Amino acid sequence: MDPMSETRLPWLLEHNEQRAVESGLDDEGEDDGGKWMLFYPNDEINAAWHRSVDLYRAGHLPGVHSMKVSTAMPNPRASTSASKVIIFYCGPSKDEAKMRSIGTSLASAMQVTGTTITYKPDYMTATGTAATGQKVNHLYKLRV
């Protein structure tokens, strides 16, 4: 399904139970996990999502145990309605070298260049977003 065709659900999910169990992490904020966030203009999100799903299912996103994408459903926590986000869950968030390595591999696989990507630990999710007034909304940044 295309994210921009979905208006009833806020997220589309891609999850592999075996990878999730092997990672020892989950995407519910009950661990030391987190997520790399890649933002795309609305007119590019469908293609980016399909690429990420293909890479994930083929095992070409090492360290990523599940992912989701924002849809066309309005989101009051979003900073803008002109872009959407793909969230790639991985961890442990305290292992900076590992998270940076996963982020670098992810950016390369997704062919993301000329921008900065951010990693947000699960514990920061509860503190809000830039749209809700949160000033610092990431733990790591990578210029790719």
Give a topology summary.
Elements lengths: L10 E5 L1 H7 L10 E8 H16 L8 E5 L12 E8 L5 H14 L6 E6 H4 L14 E4 L1
Task: Give an overview of the whole structure.
The protein is 28% helix and 25% strand. It has 144 residues and is of the alpha+beta class. A 6-stranded antiparallel sheet has the order 1-3-4-2-5-6. It is globular, with a radius of gyration of 14 Å. The model has no long low-confidence stretch (mean pLDDT 89).
Pick out its properties.
alpha+beta; 6-stranded antiparallel sheet; single chain; 144 residues; 4 helices; globular
Task: Give a short summary of the structure.
The protein is of the alpha+beta class and 144 residues long.
